Amino acid sequence: MRDGGLAHGCTLGGMSSLHSAIADLPHVTYEGPSSTNPLAFHWYDADRQVEGKTMRDHLRFAACYWHTMRNGLADPFGRGTALMPWDDGSNSLANAKTRAEVFFAILDRLGIEWYCFHDHDVAPEGDTPAEAASNLEAMTDTLKGLQDGTGVKLLWGTACLFAHPRYAHGAATSPSVDVFAHAAGQVKRAIDATIALEGRGYVFWGGREGYTTLLNTDLYQERVQYARLLEMAITHARDNGFTGDFYIEPKPREPSLHQYDNDVESTLNFLREFDMHEDVKLNIETNHATLAGKSMGHELRVAAAAGMLGSIDANMGDEHAGWDTDRFPTDLYLTTDIMLVLLEQGGLGNGGLNFDAKRRRESMEPVDHLHAHIAGMDTFARGLLGAAALRADGRLREFMAVRYASWSEQLGEDILSGNATLASLEVHAATVGETRPFSGRQEMLEAIWNDVVFAAT
Ligand code: XUL
Ligand code: CO
């Protein structure tokens, strides 16, 4: 990953006793497409230049703390299956510190240089806000030490405003003002931790900001409350030196019947309605697009067109499941389309590709962390190559330009600049007569896409 990376199986940041289940895992290196070693990268070659930038910079991979360290792979019908021999199952700070060491060791084996966390993934919640505060401060110190010892950086932090029973009716959108105050305090602490760890971003995912029945819900009141919490968060962060980005992460359906940040368009509407569109961008997750009944490509392009595409939660859903499967992104069509949007907009600025993804419950061994991330990283590296090849080929862009060419003619310019009227266009239509049908050539374009992307190396 970088000079001075951790040696095989060594101890981390001066801490001892890295569990052998992790210490024995190999460091993953690039071996190229002809390699059959499943614990090597076949496509992700961090230093390789693509369109004048390294793969490392184009992709800026991050791992998430919650799925990697805290997801036992349980489902509603059965206990967790994940083998986590380093975790004693307690809520002690000592256990939390061990988990953090293990997390950084996994990042080190994969050469992943960024991470994301929720406050209570990393720090025990405790029984009172005071305990939550001191635990988070202690874990911030631990994470700072690990960051300094490895060069790993924080992509974004966030607060878990959905797991505690007090948030049953929502956090910012709770009918109880006291619950709102708890949420506000928690957001303050999570922002302080993000600033201390020099995070590039801070995410609001509206976990329980939604409703299950309109019989007890004042929809307008709740949205105003939500906007107020966001405003306070932005003020607090900026007053305390935060220079990174704020993101809202849209998601429909889960965990409420209706989530206020349903999809990209509803979130943009919310931000514009409350005049926060200059301060907040979007963190867009593939599985959330799937749940919204949209493609990731659609969601990304809507945000990009508004200048508000900030970061990506890189996973994928399943068209056949109505819930969040959060699979690792192994679909080449998907990753190519994502990378095409990113290349077109010149990258993500402060954002990155955060693997908000979990292993299947059958992939329970520690080594599966490596397999899962390798699969996602290689598929994104191929997506980058495919997207760059499509741009170099140019036929799709050319077809698009020709399809809209009439809008560059005088009449098109008149309409777009507001110099036409319904009456003037009625006259024009009468003079041109009927238009000739013309093809969108979808199948031809799909064939070109296949030829170019699957040949890209
Ligand atoms: C939930 C989800 C969250 C956010 C951060 O579906 O994606 O983990 O990414 O709160
Ligand atoms: Co997410």
Brief overview:
With 457 residues, the protein is α/β, with parallel strands linked by helices. It has helices at 20-23, 55-59, 65-70, 93-110, 119-122, 129-150, 177-196, 219-239, 264-273, 286-291, 296-305, 332-344, 367-393, 395-403, 410-416, 422-432, 442-455; strands spanning 49-50, 53-54, 61-64, 114-118, 153-158, 201-204, 210-211, 245-248, 258-259, 280-285, 309-313, 353-355. Helices cover 45% and strands 10% of the residues.
Strand order of the largest sheet: 3-4-5-6-8-10-11-12
Helix-strand makeup class: alpha/beta
Query: Looking at the structure, what is the overall shape?
Result: globular
Give helix and strand order, one letter per element, not per position.
HEEHEHHEHHEHEEHEEHEHHEHEHHHHH
Q: How many structurally independent domains?
A: 2
**Helix fraction bin:** 40-55%
Major sheet characteristics? 8 strands, parallel, barrel
Give the integer mean of the pLDDT values.
95
Give the names of the bound compounds.
Answer: D-xylulose, cobalt (II) ion
End-to-end span in angstroms? 22 Å
How many β strands by DSSP? Answer: 12
